[in-house]
Amino acid sequence: MEKVSTFEILPDEMILHVCQYLRDGEILYSFFNLNSRLNSTIMDFCHHVNLTNLTYKQFKFVALQILPQIGGSIRSFVFNGLWQSIMFSREPTMFSRVKLSLLFPQLHTLILMNFVGGQLNLFLDKITDFFHLIKLDIRSAQVDNSYDSLKAILGANNNRLKSVLFDNNSLEFLLTSTNDEEAVSYPNIEELTVSLKTDKTLGSLFILVPNITRLYVDVDELSSASKRALENIPSLLQLKDFQLRSLDMQWSLDEIAYVLSKMPFLQRLVLDISTEDKHVVHGEKFIQVLPLLLVEI
Q: Among 58, 137, 179, 227, which is least packed, fewest CB within 10 Å?
């Protein structure tokens, strides 16, 4: 007679309680494929996979032995730039033989952490032909901050992305102004959180994402040419939610008004800025420059 361990006869609720004290990757490493009941109990950890903070032995086993078996169930996945040497090594593995879109056909959200230098651009070349992947969340990235780099990110996965987010620990992009002949846009992008080096690049950013509905921007420097940079830029007609964070320089009411004039249908506005302009501080004239449809500020 097959011997059943005490652990295997515990109720599902008790097993899930134990899982609260383990990292996601530890759960897969410890319980996956012990039996069909445990596989069913931990199924949610097969939908949302995070393999951070594992030992080398644990990570290598989960990445090379378990991920290929559960890839069709994964909806969101955290990928650490430090893992590339393991997952895409010269030794033949599933990751080097098969396209990622075939390994993870249901992937919806991809979180990229700790990418440096040229790692991100190389990895983006592998992000193609995912039919369901629409969200890219980039954290602690210290990579190329050029205009071309941002364009490569927005256009990843064959221009199927809808949401691209950079956290506060990632780089600031320094975009360059473009003429009409060079202008490229990514109408697929609906949500974007990004940091810019100077507000002069706001115009270039607006051109990149003409159909944006939610835009959160952190601006590090104010340029004297901010008005000219926006002068001939089309309005963001789909934008409903805008957040501007800019604490390292002083904004005038005139400058704020010029930015908001490009957002005629804005409904939600958050301004986390520094100003010494009395018209902004006292609010009476500030209210006059707000979009008419604004319902939350």
A: 179
Q: Tell me the domain boundaries of the chain.
A: 69-288
Hunting for tokens 């400058």 — which residue is that? 255
Superfamily of domain 69-288: Ribonuclease Inhibitor (3.80.10.10)
Q: How far apart are CA 53 and CA 22, in angstroms?
A: 11
Pairing of strands 214-221, 48-50: unpaired
Q: Do residues 113 and 84 lie in contact, with contact meaning Cβ atoms separated by under 8 Å?
A: no
Regions in the chain scoring below 50 on pLDDT = 1, 181
**In contact, 237 and 265? CB cutoff 8 Å:** yes
At 268, phi and psi to the nearest 5?
-135, 130
The CA radius of gyration of the chain, in Å to the nearest whole number, is 23
Separation of alpha carbons 136 and 192, rounded Å? 10
Cα-based distances in Å from 46 to 41, 57, 204, 271: 10, 19, 40, 39
Closest by CA to 68, choosing from 42, 35, 51, 93, is 93
- pTM for this one? 0.86
Contact, 164 vs 138, CB < 8 A? yes
The whole-number pLDDT of residue 1 equals 46
Place of tokens 């800025």: 273
Asked if residues 248 and 221 have their Cβ atoms less than 8 Å apart, the reply is yes
Q: How far apart are CA 260 and CA 258, in angstroms?
A: 6
pLDDT in tens, 76-110: 999 888 887 667 665 656 666 778 899 999 999 99
Per residue in 17-53, pLDDT (tens digit) is: 666 667 777 878 777 776 777 767 777 778 899 888 8
pLDDT of residue 224: 53
